[in-house]
Please model this.
Amino acid sequence: MSRNILPPQGDPHPTSALYLSRLDHEYLYSDAELRRAVADTVAALGGTYAVDRRYADALHKELTRDRDRCEARRSWALRTARELALGRAGGARRIGAGAPAGGRSAPLRGAS
Model:
């Protein structure tokens, strides 16, 4: 069996990483910030397989707690990953608010 499995609903790996990242889906980010978040999340969790497993667990838990917020974040992650893959994520549309005030780093989502 391949270790390169697709996460729930066939979401691409960058979607999983963005969903679990420290980024706030209600803020705007540059392409560089988005790519860095994907890379940092994959590295912190130990690879795409671990990211996908954590993503599946997080979706399961968060859907029962706050379905609307979970679906909004997943939708953002799907859209953003697709735009990054097509080279259309950044530019003036996504650069703006940046990180939340205070520059504090949030924990990875779904962390135990």
